[in-house]
Amino acid sequence: MSRTCIVCPHHISSQPRSLREADTLAKEGHEVVVVSRQTDPARSLEDRRLAETRPWELRSVVLHRSGPTRGRWFATAARSEVARRLLRAGMKSAGVAVASAVRGASALTQLALDWPADLYIGHTQLGLPIAALAAEAHGARLGFDCEDLLADSGTDDPRTIHSIEAEFIGRCDYVTTASQAMADRLETRYRVAADVLYNVFPLRLRGDMPPPSERPQDGALRIHWFGQTLGPGRGLEEAVRAVGEIGEGVELHFRGRVSSDFRQQLECIGGENAALFFHEPLPHDDLIRAFERYHVGLALERPTHPNYGVTVTNKLFSYALGGLAVLATDTEGQREALSKMPGAGTLVPELRSGALVEPLVSWRDDRDALAAAQTAAWQRADRRFCWDVEQERFLTLVQPSVDHAVGRDDAPRRRKVG
């Protein structure tokens, strides 16, 4: 079998797409190393705990702001600032771009170079140049998983991302995205064909949880939202207003890190009528089973956002796997997903509290309709939207690297459109 190096510029425990690929390849008998950065002590601990249970190896660049790596943290911060100034001055090198965006990029690159592989997979645009340099050095194949359109995200410097994409996407042997809408954007921009790998999860994460038909449907309608952090501008304020307007018989549960100020803001928005509950984050391997006591999952992306409007985040598919009815804003990406999951949920045309009230009241008052939506979501996850099915697409993409490793390489190296 072949050797694969997955380049993850963030914590592996917070990058489910990287994690699924590493797990799948290792299970298929590939030798797998994940190289990543660790910048947060708590998440670094979770990374180590997770890696201890996996049949692949984790090699990390540790850059904590305090403790033994404090000096390295400040040194890499200084180098990134120099690179940012060069970029602002007009130096458009992709090397400068990645140095400006990724602290410790040189150390992460060295980790990848130190492990000769047959395939290097760069996750996100920040991992792509590192994987590309290692693939070139070792005559290996190159894959790129475009998790988000970071140039359109509003969180990353568009000049940096466009510079990286323009130089390296054309070198890839395959490119994957989280939705067909994203794949279409990449094709338009770079004339590169991309394959869709949805943000789905393995069925084993359900454990022994019962299907929706075997769960109690009485009591308040319990609505769930999860994320790494709770913050403004993500639709949470509108959801709280909707629950406050409905009042009796509805509970809204948030799971994620939240500042005391933002929690207080949400509680003020909801007033006395909104039953709000705040829960600590869970590792995603445990999250799906926690859905058993809820009814509805919220996927509240902004339809006009150039990135979140076209992607399909892991929320929607996580809810379906856990047997929750899905209430989602009508973005291009979420419309794409729910069109393939008939009956599993409802799309609302805009991110506004008034738009959320009607479907929630309908499910609160009609438990048969609620159960039907939950069952539809559960069954579509069973048959199509789970990693057990989606991984076959992924394995087909990496098969040429296996053939290359054993001398059966007759596949074209790169695919361009037109």
Topology at a glance:
Layout (H helix, E strand, L loop, with lengths): L2 E6 L7 H12 L3 E8 L2 H12 L4 E6 L7 H19 L5 H8 L3 H9 L5 E5 H15 L2 E6 L11 H11 L5 E4 L2 H11 L4 E2 L24 E9 L6 H11 L3 E8 L2 H11 L4 E5 L4 H7 L5 E4 L14 H8 L3 E5 L2 H8 L5 E4 L4 H13 L1 H17 L3 H19 L13
Parallel strand pairs: 1-2, 1-4, 2-3, 4-5, 5-6, 6-7, 8-9, 8-11, 9-10, 11-12, 12-13
Helix pairs in contact: 1-16, 3-4, 4-7, 5-6, 6-7, 9-10, 9-14, 12-15, 14-15
Give a description of the structure:
This protein has 418 residues and is α/β, with parallel strands linked by helices. It folds into 2 domains: 3-200 and 387-405, Rossmann fold (3-Layer(aba) Sandwich), CATH 3.40.50.2000; 204-383, Glycogen Phosphorylase B (Rossmann fold, 3-Layer(aba) Sandwich), CATH 3.40.50. It is built from 16 helices and 13 strands. The strands form 2 sheets. A 7-stranded parallel beta sheet has the order 3-2-1-4-5-6-7, with helices on both faces. It has a 6-stranded parallel beta sheet with strand order 10-9-8-11-12-13, with helices on both faces. Strand 8, helix 9 (236-246) and strand 9 (250-257) form a beta-alpha-beta unit. Helix 1 (16-27) packs across helix 16 (387-405). The longest helix is centred in the N-terminal third of the chain and has 19 residues, at 70-88. The chain is globular and about 60 Å long. The two termini are 34 Å apart.
